[in-house]
Specification:
The complex is a heterodimer.
Chain A (H helix, E strand, L loop, with lengths): L18 H11 L19 H5 L19 E14 L2 E14 L3 E5 L6 H8 L8 E3 L4 E4 L2 E2 L5 H7 L4 E4 L3 H4 L6 H12 L4 H14 L5 H4 L9 H13 L5 E5 L7 H18 L2 E6 L2 H7 L2 E6 L2 E7 H6 L4 H8 L40 H5 L4 E3 L5 E3 L15 H8 L1
Parallel strand pairs in A: 3-9, 3-10, 7-8, 8-9
Antiparallel strand pairs in A: 1-2, 1-4, 1-5, 5-6, 10-11, 11-13, 12-13
Helix pairs in contact in A: 6-7, 7-9, 9-10
Chain B lengths: L1 H28 L14 H10 L6 H13 L14 H36 L4 H15 L2 H15 L11 H31 L2 H8 L4 H38 L5 H10 L3 H29 L3 H7 L1
Helix pairs in contact in B: 1-11, 4-5, 4-7, 4-9, 4-10, 5-7, 6-7, 7-9, 8-9, 9-10, 9-11, 10-11
The chains are: A alpha/beta, B mainly alpha.
C-alpha cells in the first residue's frame, strides 16, 4: 500500500523543504544523534514487535540523565479544544490536547500542516480571534496556578509579551515595516518592565547585542527592510526575550530561513535558554530541528496529540504509525541515498466532521476495524512516553499488526 | 529627474494653453455680450465706447491673441463687471479665503474620514460598519450643495447653533467646511476602511497583540500608519478638488472667496473674470497633480530612503 501510492502522494514532512535544503541540513546535523540505530526510521519495514513486546520498565534507564533537570510544572493544558466558526460550519481545529510544560525545558510540537499546532500555540496565550474562535468549556490552561481561560483581556495583556512571548515564522511580515526596529523593541520593554524610554533604549541595545546583531546602537534606528532574513528573526527573538519571559512560544521559527541561518537561530535559542532558563514551546514540522533542540516532543495529528515522550524515546522507539511515517519520510545520512523516501499517503481528515475513531485510521497501514469506530485511549508505554493507538491494546498485540488481515481492514 | 521635471513643465504649459484656448472660444461662441443685460436702456454710444475699451469690437481671433499676450505677462486683464478692479487683484483677495475654506474642509475630511474608516474596519460587517459605509455612499452620491442647504436649514436656522452664512469668525467656517468635506470624507473613509481591514489581518498586528499592547495603541501606532499611506497619495488630487469645488459652496454661504467672483462673472458675462479664474484654477490643479507625481517618483524607487527621511 505504501509502495503503490508513493509516486503520486505528497510527502508529509519532506515535501515543504527543498531537496537542496535537506541535503544541507544533514551536514549540520551530522554529528548529532549519531547513536540512532538505523531501523528506527523505517516506518514500513520496522517490525513493530520489538517495541510492542518490550516491557516498559526495562526501557528507560536513561530517562533521568537525559536533558536538563526537569523543573516544576510551568504550564498545564488540559483537554484543550478550539473550534472556529466559518461559512462552511464549525472547524474543530484542536480536539482535546493535554500538555505539561516544565520550567526550563523545550517542548516540541510536531505535525504536518493543518494539524492544529499553531492554533494550540496561539491558545496558550489566548491570542486567537475572539470573534470567530471558541474555546472548549472544560478546557484549562493553567499557568503558574492561574487558569488563563478565565482571565479577561486586560489581565491577559499583562501576561502577553511579559511572561509569555511569541516568535512567529516569518519575521518579514511579523514585524512592522513602518516602525524602526528600536521602537518595536522599546515599546514592549517600556510597557512591561515599567521603565522610562531612555532606560528601555539601553535594554533594547543590550538585547540586540545579545542576539548577535553587530553595532546595535545604529541598527536600532533602522527599518526592517534594512536587515537580512536571519537578522530579522534575531530581532524577533530579541523582542520576544526582552522582558525576560518564563515561556517562549516559537511558531516555526526557522522555517523561512536557510539551513546555515537555521542552525544559528537554534543555537541562539539554546544560548537564551541557558542564560535565562526560559521554557520553550517549539512548533515545527521539521524533525531535524526537533532532534537538535527539544527535550520532549508531542506529535500532533488532526488536532490531537497522538504520541508524546522525550526526544530519545520518540526517535528511538516511535510507537504510533503516524510518527513512524513522519520519520520514514525524512531523509537520513545513514541510509542508502538511492533509496526513496517513504511518504504517508493520503491527507488528514476533514476537521468539519472528524472521524469517530482514530483520525489516522484512513491512512494507517496497520488500521483495524476498531480504529475506525472507536477512539483509542492514551497508553503509557514507559517514562514520559505515551501513545494513542489501538496497537497498544493488549488484544491487538496478539496478532502482528502489519499482517495482511490488518491491511485489508485498512483498505476495506 | 531634472529632465523629467522639465518634460512635465512643458506638458503642463501645453495643457494650460489648450484649456485657455477652449475656454476662450467656447465663451465667445455663446451669443450675447457683457453689455446686453441692461442694454435696452443704455446709451448705444457708451456701449460702443466700452466695447472698444475692452477690445470687444475686434474679431475674436485678434482678441484671443491680445489675451494670450497679456497672459504671458501674467496679467489677467481688467474686470468688466467691477470696473476699476483687475482680475489679478480679485484673485489675490478671494483666493486666501477660498484656500482657508478648502484647508478646513480637507482637515475635516482627513480627521472624519480616517476615523470613520477605522471604526468601520474595526467593526467589520457589523452594524457600525454598515452604517458608516451607507453614510460614505451617501456622501459620494449626494451633491454638496444639497448637504449645504440641509445644514443651513437645520443647524443654522432651526437649531441656531452656527451662523447661516458669511465669513469672519471660525464659527462661520464650520458649516461650509462640512458641506465641502462630505465627498472627500466619504472617499477617504472607504479607502481607509479597505486598507485597514487588510492591515488588521497582517502578521505584525498579531505580533503587536502578542506583545500585550493595548488595542488602542495597536490600531493607532501599528495599523493606522500602514493603512493611511495610500490615503496620503490620494490627498493631492483631493486638495485640488476641494479648492475648485468650493465655487458653489461659497456662493451658497455668501463667502467672499474666488467662487463668488467666478459665479458672478458667469452671470454677468464678465469675460476676463471667467477666463482669469479658469486659468488660475487650471494652473493650480495642474501644479497639484505635478507635485503628486513628483512625490510618487520620489517614493517609488526607494521607498525606504523616503521613509527614513520622514
Amino acid at each position: 500500500m505504501w509502495r503503490r501510492s508513493r509516486k503520486a502522494s505528497i510527502s508529509a514532512v519532506a515535501a515543504p523543504e527543498g531537496l537542496a535544503r535537506e541535503k544541507e541540513r544533514e551536514t549540520v546535523r551530522e554529528d548529532r544523534l549519531p547513536e540512532r540505530p538505523p531501523a528506527i526510521y523505517d516506518g514500513r519495514t520496522a517490525a513493530p514487535e520489538p517495541a510492542a513486546t518490550e516491557k516498559p520498565a526495562s526501557r528507560e534507564p536513561r530517562e533521568a540523565a537525559e536533558g536538563r533537570a526537569p523543573g516544576k510544572t510551568l504550564m498545564a493544558v488540559e483537554n484543550l479544544r478550539v473550534s472556529f466558526r466559518t461559512h462552511g460550519g464549525e472547524v474543530q481545529a484542536v480536539r482535546g490536547v493535554d500538555l505539561q510544560l516544565r520550567e526550563g525545558e523545550t517542548l516540541a510540537i510536531v505535525g504536518e500542516s493543518g494539524c492544529g499546532k499553531s492554533v494550540t500555540a496561539r491558545s496558550l496565550m489566548r491570542l486567537l480571534p475572539e470573534q470567530t474562535s471558541k474555546l472548549g468549556k472544560d478546557s484549562r490552561i493553567v499557568w503558574k496556578g492561574v487558569d488563563l481561560t478565565r482571565l479577561k483581556e486586560k489581565e491577559l495583556r499583562k501576561l502577553r509579551g511579559a511572561e509569555i512571548s511569541m516568535i512567529f515564522q516569518d519575521a518579514m511580515t511579523a514585524l512592522n515595516p513602518t516602525l524602526t526596529v528600536g521602537e518595536q523593541l522599546i515599546e514592549s520593554i517600556a510597557l512591561h518592565r515599567k521603565v522610562p524610554r531612555s532606560e528601555a533604549r539601553k535594554i533594547a541595545v543590550e538585547m540586540l547585542g545579545l542576539v548577535g546583531i553587530p553595532s546595535p546602537e545604529t541598527r536600532l534606528k533602522q527599518y526592517l527592510g534594512e536587515f537580512s532574513g536571519g537578522m530579522r528573526q534575531r530581532i524577533m527573538i530579541a523582542i520576544a526575550a526582552s522582558c525576560n519571559p518564563s515561556l517562549l512560544i516559537a511558531d516555526e521559527p526557522t522555517t523561512a530561513l536557510d539551513v546555515t541561518i537555521q542552525a544559528q537561530i537554534l543555537e541562539l535559542f539554546r544560548m537564551l535558554q541557558q542564560k535565562t532558563g526560559v521554557s520553550i514551546v517549539l512548533i515545527t514540522h521539521d524533525l531535524g530541528v526537533v532532534a537538535e533542540t527539544a527535550d520532549r516532543v508531542c506529535v500532533m495529528y488532526a488536532g490531537e496529540i497522538v504520541e508524546s515522550g522525550s526526544v530519545r524515546e520518540l526517535f528511538r522507539r516511535p510507537r504510533h504509525p503516524y510518527t513512524r511515517g513522519l520519520l520514514a519520510s525524512m531523509p537520513r545520512l545513514d541510509r542508502d541515498r538511492s533509496r526513496q523516501l517513504e511518504p504517508i499517503p493520503g491527507t488528514p481528515p476533514d476537521l468539519f466532521a472528524p472521524p469517530p475513531g482514530c483520525a489516522f485510521a484512513a491512512r494507517c497501514p496497520h488500521a483495524m476495524e476498531v480504529c475506525r469506530l472507536h477512539h483509542p485511549a492514551s497508553t503509557q508505554v514507559g517514562g514520559s512516553h505515551s501513545v494513542s493507538c489501538w496497537l497498544e491494546d493488549p488484544r491487538a498485540q496478539q496478532a502482528p499488526p502489519s499482517s495482511p488481515a490488518g491491511r485489508s481492514a485498512a483498505i476495506g | 529627474m531634472a529632465s523629467y521635471i522639465l518634460k512635465r513643465l512643458v506638458s503642463m504649459l501645453v495643457t494650460l494653453w489648450l484649456i485657455v484656448t477652449v475656454t476662450f472660444f467656447l465663451m465667445h461662441s455663446v451669443p450675447g455680450s457683457p453689455f446686453d443685460k441692461d442694454g435696452k436702456n443704455s446709451n448705444p454710444t457708451a456701449v460702443q465706447n466700452m466695447m472698444a475699451y475692452y477690445h470687444l469690437d475686434e474679431p475674436v481671433g485678434v482678441q484671443y491673441v491680445l489675451y494670450l499676450k497679456s497672459l504671458l505677462k501674467l496679467d489677467l486683464g481688467p474686470s468688466i463687471g467691477h470696473f476699476p478692479d483687475s482680475v489679478n487683484s480679485m484673485i489675490s483677495r478671494g483666493f486666501p479665503v477660498s484656500f482657508q475654506l478648502g484647508m478646513i474642509a480637507i482637515l475635516f475630511a482627513i480627521v472624519a474620514g480616517i476615523a470613520l474608516g477605522t471604526v468601520a474596519a474595526l467593526y467589520k460587517n457589523r452594524l457600525i460598519d454598515q452604517a458608516a459605509m451607507v453614510l460614505a455612499v451617501l456622501g459620494i452620491a449626494v451633491p454638496n450643495f444639497v448637504v449645504a442647504t440641509l445644514l443651513i436649514k437645520y443647524v443654522a436656522v432651526e437649531w441656531h447653533l452656527l451662523p447661516v452664512a458669511m465669513w469672519g469668525t471660525w464659527r462661520h467656517t464650520v458649516l461650509p467646511g462640512l458641506a465641502l468635506a462630505t465627498g472627500p470624507i466619504a472617499i477617504i473613509a472607504r479607502m481607509t476602511r479597505a486598507n485597514m481591514v487588510e492591515v488588521l489581518t497582517s502578521d505584525y498586528i498579531e505580533t503587536a497583540r502578542a506583545k500585550g499592547l493595548h488595542p488602542f495603541v495597536i490600531v493607532t501606532k501599528h495599523a493606522l500608519r500602514n493603512a493611511v499611506l495610500p490615503v496620503v497619495t490620494l490627498l493631492g488630487a483631493l486638495i485640488a478638488n476641494v479648492l475648485t469645488g468650493s465655487f458653489v459652496i461659497e456662493k451658497i454661504f455668501a463667502i467672499p472667496g474666488m467662487g463668488k467672483y467666478f459665479v458672478d462673472g458667469i452671470n454677468n458675462r464678465d469675460y476676463s473674470v471667467i477666463m482669469g479664474t479658469t486659468v488660475f484654477y487650471s494652473a493650480l490643479l495642474l501644479f497639484m497633480m505635478f507635485l503628486v507625481d513628483i512625490a510618487y517618483g520620489l517614493i517609488d524607487p526607494r521607498i525606504k530612503l523616503h521613509r527614513k527621511e520622514r
